[in-house]
Amino acid sequence: MKTVAMVLFPDFLLLDMAGPMEVFSIANRYLAPSDRYELATIGTEHGALRASNGVSVQADLHIDQANEHYDLLLVPGGPGATTKGIRRCSAGSRAPSPGQTGMVRSAPVRSCSGMPGCWTAIA
């Protein structure tokens, strides 16, 4: 089973979170159980995180509880885009794939030019 984690932070773009997670969820319907994706959301803060549109989302884990390795680590874009705490989770990640306006991480985090809504794939 491959692990996919989405890091959530205050003011993230809900569409950048929901779209990719839905794609993996639908893919799981058609895959053998051993080939399915294990999905998780990781919050940079405790409690519910409010997206840029005002919707609150409760992450599965706080960043302090997250694994040090995920097969794919996704970071949505948004006015509150941050790299806070992501370095530990991204160190062992692999298989980068360009996202929408978020950042896909497969190696140590680099700045995304400080611009909300940009994405970077690091090989």
Helix content: 10-25%
Shape: globular
Poorly predicted regions: 95-123
Could you tell me the mean pLDDT?
A: 76
Specify the number of helices: 2
* Strand residue content: 15-25%
Structural class category:
alpha/beta
The succession of helices and strands, N to C, reads EHEEEEEHE
Could you outline the blueprint of secondary structure elements for this entry?
Blueprint: E1 2-8, H1 14-30, E2 37-43, E3 48-50, E4 56-58, E5 61-62, E6 72-75, H2 86-90, E7 103-105
Parallel strand pairs: 1-2, 1-6, 2-5
Antiparallel strand pairs: 3-4, 6-7
Structure description:
This protein has helices at residues 14-30, 86-90, and strands spanning 2-8, 37-43, 48-50, 56-58, 61-62, 72-75, 103-105. Strand 1 (2-8), helix 1 (14-30) and strand 2 form a beta-alpha-beta unit. Helices cover 18% and strands 24% of the residues. The radius of gyration is 13 Å and the shape is globular. It has a 5-stranded mixed sheet. A two-stranded antiparallel sheet has the order 3-4. Residues 95-123 have low confidence and may be disordered. It has 2 helices and 7 strands, in the order βαβββββαβ. The two termini are 22 Å apart. The chain has 123 residues and is an alpha/beta fold.
